[in-house]
Amino acid sequence: MEAKKGYKAVAKNLPMSPTKIRPIANNLRKRPVVEAVAILETLPNKGAGFLKKVIESATANALFQNSKLDEEMLYIKELLVDGGPIQKRIWPRSRGKADRLLKRSSHISVVVDEIGNTGE
Description:
Number of strands: 5
Family: Belongs to the universal ribosomal protein uL22 family.
Protein name: Large ribosomal subunit protein uL22
CATH class: Alpha Beta
Subunit structure: Part of the 50S ribosomal subunit.
Oligomer: single chain
Number of domains: 1
Order of helices and strands: EHHHEEEE
Structural class: alpha+beta
Number of helices: 3
Organism: Spirochaeta isovalerica
GO molecular function, one term: structural constituent of ribosome
């Protein structure tokens, strides 16, 4: 019998480097959803807004798929921040030279599950 994975939400091609989002995400893993959203609302970072939106989407998916769940009983089971496609641009420099400008993007995936659910 396969263990239940939880309720998932994914945001792709977000216009921000994953190295800027990961430190925020590292503080949210294994926390209750309500506590994580409260933390994200107080942070001024652009990445915090992206994370909050994906966590709220995963929570809404969980509540939609299982009406018996309570938002207070959900926690962040899995939170991944991966690199997305990189846009390469030219950055003009002095004396006719050029550097390469890499515009990085991110993929965020969140899995929420019920507190006390061991996947049986």
